[in-house]
Amino acid sequence: MDSFIVTIDGPAGSGKSTIAKMIAKKYNFTYLDTGAMYRMIALYVIRHNIDLENKKEIEEMLKNVKLDIQGNTFYLNGEDVSEAIRTPEVSKIVSPVAAIKEVRVKLVDMQREISFGKRIILDGRDMGTTVFPKADVKIFLIASPEIRAKRRLKEYDEKGIAATYEEVLESIKERDYIDSTRKESPLVKAQDAHEIDSSKLNIDDVLKEISAYIDKKIGE
Ligand code: CDP
Ligand code: CDP
């Protein structure tokens, strides 16, 4: 079967990974959560106290990290860190880590390698702009910061992670700012991406709209 690439970009909490998993199941695509890859590097940075200003330390770190992704399970140097990468501490540091050029070069190479020849859906920030500028389908998913903070807070509550609405909103706004203004592959809508605002849509509505768009593209 021919390769087919669907990209979903957008800010934190807009619903990318939820929708991407549903699309993957519906169309039998592979799913790759590229944010989780940046989160694994961020976790390593925290654990090893890496100085983000020190290029030598960054290069050394990138030689030492081995990322292994098996579906929705993420291994950092052999350890399952699927839960550990979702904490507010990791969320706080991940954007500065993801702004480092050397980090992006390594992860973008991996993302292209993993996707080669596959029917795949990837979510992130720069999938439709930098990583796969010729993707078959590009979605840009947005929602207001307040709605996104409420959604993320609900997830933290369910997992028993302590956080206030104000803290989560602040963290989301800070991440939006860093991700959108960084020099390397900032979060921007690709010109040919289909934009959906999920602020007032439930997951099923978003799924329906994206499915219809994919079906149209498959038919072209
Ligand atoms: O799930 P959430 O939207 O909170 O974030 P994520 O997708 O797990 O991504 C975490 C962070 O990784 C983002 O805030 C970006 O700084 C970075 N990221 C990136 O720079 N490029 C990507 N393709 C994916 C994530
Ligand atoms: O991957 P990203 O950070 O963009 O968002 P997510 O983790 O897929 O979604 C964040 C939360 O919002 C999840 O708990 C979703 O169930 C929820 N969500 C929602 O309530 N309504 C939507 N239309 C999309 C997501």
From TrEMBL:
GO biological process: nucleobase-containing small molecule interconversion; pyrimidine nucleotide metabolic process
Compartment list: Cytoplasm
Family classification: Belongs to the cytidylate kinase family. Type 1 subfamily.
Record carries keyword Coiled coil: no
Keywords: ATP-binding, Cytoplasm, Kinase, Nucleotide-binding, Transferase
Any Gene Ontology CC annotation: cytosol
Name the UniProt record assigns to this protein: Cytidylate kinase
InterPro entries listed in its UniProt record: Cytidylate_kin, Cytidylate_kinase_dom, P-loop_NTPase
EC numbers: 2.7.4.25
Transmembrane residue ranges: none
Any one GO molecular function term: dCMP kinase activity
Reactions accelerated catalytically: CMP + ATP = CDP + ADP; dCMP + ATP = dCDP + ADP
Keyword Metal-binding included in the entry's annotation: no
Catalytic class of the enzyme: transferase
Binding site for ATP: 10-18
Pfam family of the protein (one): Cytidylate_kin
Signal peptide positions (record): none
Domain Cytidylate kinase: 6-215
